[in-house]
Amino acid sequence: MSAGRNRLVRLVAVGVLPAMLAFVVVHALRAGDGEDHRGRSSGGGDVDATGPAEALDLTATLVGTRYQREPTFQVRQERAAVSPPPEVRDCRQFAAWAQREGGVPAGPDPVHILSLHARRSVDVQFIGVVAVPVAQPSLDTQGPWVELACRDAAPAATGPPAATSSPAATSFPADDGPAYVGAQRHVLTAGQAVELPVDLDPPSGPDRAFPPGIADYYLQVRMEVDGVEQTRELRNGTGYFRCCGRTTFMGFQAARYEWTLSPARVLRYCAELRYVDRPPPRTCAPREPA
To answer: Which residues pair with 185 in a beta bridge?
Structure first.
């Protein structure tokens, strides 16, 4: 009887106890490894885990057209004399407000601002920016249309068309400014935000960068982020961008409403012109807002 108990004790000691100890050790090691992994993830952060696709926030804003030295829009006449809200204090804010009111940037080629925000240190190089039209709406039955513009300095009361131009607004890209980001490299640190004016590339070959007339479109941006090429599609919020209106034709210039926002708000009205050969001097005068 005693010999049987001794054999049972030896069997437990040799067979069962080592297996139990091994189970406890393995379980402890796994728990420690999990805690260590979680500690490294929370300490180094999601920054280290962010790949090229998530490393950069990118949006686009339509601010005007290529050959306009100030924001100029084709708008319905009843909207042109309406004073912008008090929070609109410069021409860039004016451009955003005018588009919300249904204005279409006037001119041949749109100009956009690309806004970049780095979630971590990142190396960005743009390859090309292309407009992809989705529709060409007709506005012929929605007029009459006039020209709406924003100026940074009050102009003289009267003058020929050439005298209506002013130096480019500091918040609005001019045609002689740096307005192309292709083949440029931008090294950003974590949290850094930059804004870059950009011209459009033609979709292929000798094609125009933007179709004639008014078009609804989105932007297709090709770039390299940390050496990895990617393509992003940018829209105007939840909708599409719309450009480009026209207010001057052979023998006709639409009426013009010019807003100066500072130091005091002033609206100037220039009557429409109809002519055969050369446009006559345009007469402009202050007007009370609607």
So the answer is: 125
| pLDDT tens over the chain, length 290 residues | 445 545 544 544 445 445 554 544 444 444 444 444 433 333 333 444 478 778 999 999 999 998 888 899 999 998 898 999 999 999 999 999 999 999 999 988 899 999 999 999 999 999 999 999 999 988 776 778 999 999 876 554 444 333 333 333 334 454 444 445 555 789 999 999 999 998 888 776 566 788 888 999 999 999 999 999 999 999 998 899 999 998 888 888 899 999 999 888 999 999 999 998 888 888 999 999 87
Rounded Cα–Cα distance for residues 124 and 194 (Å): 12
Do 59 and 35 lie in a common domain? Answer: no
Amino acid present at 163 = A
Q: Are 43 and 56 within one domain? A: no
Alpha-carbon distance 2 to 65, whole Å? 103
Which tokens belong to 271? 């009557």
Sheet of 104-105, strands arranged across: 104-105, 72-76, 145-151, 256-260, 266-270, 284-286
Q: Are 76 and 140 within 8 A, CB to CB?
A: no
Query: How many domains in the chain?
Result: 2
> Are 43 and 153 found together in one domain?
no
Q: Are strands 72-76 and 145-151 parallel, antiparallel or unpaired?
A: antiparallel
Same-domain pairing of 4 and 85? no
Task: Tell me the C-alpha distance between 24 and 286, whole Å.
Answer: 88
Q: Are residues 44 and 138 in the same domain?
A: no
In this structure, are 41 and 65 located in the same domain? no
Beta bridge partners of 217: 133, 241
- Select from 30, 49, 68 the last residue of a domain: 49
* Structural domain boundaries enclosing 13: 1-49
Which pTM does this prediction carry? 0.71
Instruction: Examine residue 244 and say whether the peptide bond preceding it is cis (omega within 30 degrees of 0).
Output: yes
DSSP string, 35-49: HHHHHHHHHHHHHHH
